[in-house]
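hiii so um. not sure if this is the right channel but i have a protein structure encoded as tokens and i wanna go backwards to a sequence. like what aa goes where. can anyone help
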């Protein structure tokens, strides 16, 4: 049980000597707090096997706007009655203030090993991911990087990445026999897609270097350009099509895109590069970002995986949800926050929430 101001990485730090770890591992885990993880239902590279925050959250202490302190869930999964915990996780601070949380910690695996697979085409890499999932293999992580991110991260972290158009980092875990078996199946599937390179880690140092490049991606990209990081989710089977369309949108808008994301569960993080000092570039970037997020919805996905809706995406909510769907969500907030005092201008389009925010608007 932790206070929610605690950083994500420090949770594992507190229990690893006893052979445990906390599974959700967003790239910002060194700095991000458990409170934010709960608000956004954060994931991370290893969420393919272990799930996102909602799958690892067992209970919360939450302060309602009445001042009442409530305990929801507890030291066990799947508490009885309504799944209020699932409602709170990912609610973006709309329902109450979470001050403490009971987290699920897991036994550290016996071992883990990544394999690095390079391809000469983004769509082919996406098809490989889809085939791995279809085959029933469950790696702990499948991460995707395109040529722009590969080159930038290699210059930054010197991880030894190959010179190719697309890169997959696939990690499996278990006993040595389990690892060998899973990697053999994955490499067999990858070889059917004519990879330019397949490289299994041979040591802990090699594994650390492979992950250093991926974990450094956002910082590395920030050294070469201003960028906007998007967060949409799609069915894994649609990866090839969506990657192709993002490339077409990049050409259409004249803005480069670096793709680095959690490919195993379809949680995409396209990075649109722009010049913040060039008049009109930010607006062009935002317009392109909206088109990419609409593409995710059209592909059968959604507007966000782990970064939330906030203000940036609120006007796109009507693209994903019908009026009746939005009304149901608004009614939930009415129950927890009847005067609409918590993050009232976020998540929902202002026109949709206007009447409910009338008291707040009048006070302004």
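sure thing!! here u go:
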């Amino acid at each position: 049980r932790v206070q929610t101001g605690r950083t994500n990485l420090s949770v594992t730090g507190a229990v690893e000597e006893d052979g445990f770890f906390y599974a959700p591992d967003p790239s910002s885990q060194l700095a991000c707090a458990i409170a934010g993880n709960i608000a956004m239902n954060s994931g991370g590279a290893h969420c393919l096997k272990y799930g996102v925050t909602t799958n690892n959250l067992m209970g919360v202490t939450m302060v309602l706007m009445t001042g009442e302190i409530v305990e929801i869930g507890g030291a066990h999964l799947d508490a009885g009655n309504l799944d209020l915990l699932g409602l709170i996780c990912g609610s973006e601070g709309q329902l109450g203030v979470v001050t403490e949380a009971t987290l699920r910690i897991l036994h550290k695996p016996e071992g883990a090993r990544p394999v690095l697979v390079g391809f000469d085409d983004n769509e082919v890499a996406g098809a490989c991911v889809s085939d791995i999932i279809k085959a029933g293999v469950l790696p702990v992580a499948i991460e995707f990087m395109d040529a722009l991110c590969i080159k930038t991260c290699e210059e930054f972290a010197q991880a030894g990445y190959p010179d190719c158009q697309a890169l997959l980092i696939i990690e499996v875990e278990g006993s040595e026999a389990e690892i060998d078996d899973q990697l053999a199946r994955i490499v067999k599937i990858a070889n059917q897609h004519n990879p330019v390179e397949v490289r299994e880690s041979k040591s802990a140092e090699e594994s650390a270097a492979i992950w250093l490049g991926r974990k450094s991606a956002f910082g590395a990209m920030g050294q070469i350009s201003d960028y906007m990081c998007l967060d949409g989710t799609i069915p894994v089977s649609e990866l090839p099509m969506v990657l192709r369309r993002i490339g077409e949108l990049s050409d259409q808008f004249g803005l480069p895109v670096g793709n680095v994301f959690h490919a195993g569960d379809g949680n995409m993080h396209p990075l649109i590069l722009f010049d913040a000092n060039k008049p009109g570039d930010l607006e062009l970037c935002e317009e392109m970002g909206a088109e990419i997020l609409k593409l995710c919805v059209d592909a059968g996905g959604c507007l966000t995986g782990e970064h939330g809706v906030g203000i940036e995406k609120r006007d796109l909510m009507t693209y994903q949800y019908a009026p009746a769907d939005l009304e149901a969500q608004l009614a939930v907030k009415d129950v927890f926050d009847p005067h609409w005092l918590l993050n009232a201008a976020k998540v929902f389009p202002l026109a949709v929430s206007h009447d409910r925010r009338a008291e707040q608007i009048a006070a302004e």
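oh and The two ends are 39 Å apart (CA to CA).
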